Each structure stands twice: as C-alpha cells, then as structure tokens.
Amino acid sequence: MNAPHHPEPKDRPARLTVGVVGAGRVGPTLAASLELAGHRPVAVSGVSDASVRRAAAVLPDVPVVSPAQVLEAADLVLLTVPDDALPGLVEGLAETGSVRPGQLLVHTSGRYGVGVLEPARRAGGLPLALHPAMTFTGTAVDVQRLAGCSFGVTAPEELRLAAEALVIEMGGEPEWIEEASRPLYHAALALGANHLVTLVAQSMDLLRAAGVEAPDRMLGPLLGAALDNALRSGDAALTGPVARGDAGTVAAHVAELRKHAPHAVAGYLAMARTTADRALAHGLLKPELAEDLLGVLSDGGR
User: Fold this and answer.
1) pLDDT at residue 11 above 50?
2) CA 89 to chain centre
3) What pLDDT digit, counting tens, does each position of 142-164 carry?
4) What is the CA radius of gyration of the chain?
5) Strand partners, 21
C-alpha cells in the first residue's frame, strides 16, 4: 500500500503544534498524518476509555488532557467530535476564552461548513472545515488510507490556500465545497458509503441463510466489479432483473424475502423502485416491461 505523499520541505507551511479535541476514529489519525508531515501533536482530549486507548495507540506519548488544555497547547486544533456535539463545543470553548487569536480551528464534520465555527472566529480563531471522504477504523492503518483521499474543504477565501495545503500535507486531495452545499455533499456520501455497508451486511446474512459458507468470498469479486463499473459508467452499469424488467423474478425475490427475511423487504422494494426509475430514464428498462415491474413493486409482490 502506498504511503501518503507529503510535500518536500521547501513546499511546506510553518510547523505547527497540533491538538485533538475528541479522540474518536478520525482525530488521532489526522494528527498522526500531520506528524508525518513535520507538525507536532502535543495534546489530545478524550472522555471514554476507548478514546483514551485509541489516542495512546495512534499518538503514543501525547498527553491526554482537557479540551481547554488542548487549545492552550496547540496552534492547530482538530475538533473531531460528533456532528451534533460540535456547535455546543465551539460555543463553550469561545465563551470560556479558550480560543486564541490566530489559532487554527479545524473541524471534520461533513455536515457543517465554517458557519458553525463563528463563535471561535469572533474570538480571533481561524475557521476551517476539512472533511475526509473516508471510513475510519481507529487504527494506524487509517493513516495509509488518507493517500489520495478526497477532503471536502470549506474555508474563508483568505484561508483557502492554508486549508488546501493542510489537506495535501495529509496526503489528501482538496475538493472545494460551498458552505450552502455541505449538507447535500454529506448526504451524498452517507447514501453511498454508509448505506453500502448496510446493504453488503444484509446480503451476507441472506447468503448465509441460503447455505453459502463464505458469503464474503462470493460477494467480493461481484461487488468489486459492480463498484468499478458504477464509478466508470454510472447508470449504464445497471444490470439484474429490475433493469431487465423481469417482473416475475422480482416478485419471486420479494416472496422469498417475506418468508425468510421480512425485515429486508422494505429496503429491497425501495432500492428496486429507485433502480427501475433510473434504468427507465437511461433507456435500459423497456417501457413495455416497466408496467408489470412497477406493478410488482407497488404492491410489494403480493
């Protein structure tokens, strides 16, 4: 696996002390990547035992302290807490005077742009939103996965170059996202990545129920090819009984799911309807076959 590319020293911005508020799966990984680029992690905060262990594993010898102490020690602070906790955290840090003028405040939420950092900006902080479009395990392997990873970047115009430079130092590729587009951008990623995990796990459960001993081995080549085709060709890569208009096969699928996995029926029908709509719009599903298929999907194969 290729290691993240980091700029040569002559291309690098000034070295920074780095702090992490929220030692989940993302923060320690980004701090470790910045350390490879020559920056210096100096403090991390974490509440749960798991977060403390994670910080110790990914950032050994970096002290675990309070959020206020992280801001006191660091030039660049990674705010890597859950989305719903971010506004309150920023307000609290600003109200307690923890934010220093000229301090870089970086959050990694996909949902928010820099508006959520407004209390910190009023206190003199420099707001950046850098969201890695990657799934994290909370282990050292995540640092390697940042190589070539796209980051959704939102920042004030005067900080745009600084934001992009930090992403490049972490081995990533900056992609500019307008403030107003952040929720849609994040929804798109969740639809593709989060729901993919659910679909794959559900598919493996059904294969086990059908007697397949190694569903992961069966699905690996198939899903790898499907993903590659979809990324290359979009809707033109659609295949299977829905795209072909095989209403009888789809009805049989639904009947089997009702019998063996009723919890999977709603998801199957919803994805099948969406697939049918896209196949019809792309000219893959013939209109004369679509009527019977959509009839099956509308009544749930009953």
Assistant:
1) no
2) 21
3) 999 999 999 999 999 999 999 99
4) 23
5) 45, 79
pTM: 0.86
CB 16 within 8 A of CB 40: yes
157, amino acid identity = E
Q: How far is CA 268 from CA 248, 259, 261, 280, 295, in A?
A: 15, 14, 11, 18, 15
- The first and second tokens of residue 243, run together, are 């795209």
pLDDT at 302: 57
- Four-point Cα dihedral 231, 227, 110, 276, nearest 10: 80
Per-residue tokens: 226: 């499907």
How does DSSP classify residue 261?
-
Q: Which residue has the tokens 């206190």?
A: 123
List pLDDT tens digits, range 253-273: 999 999 999 999 999 999 999
Q: Do the beta carbons of residue 301 and residue 253 sit within 8 Å?
A: yes
The dihedrals phi and psi of 176, each to the nearest 5 degrees, come to -75, 125
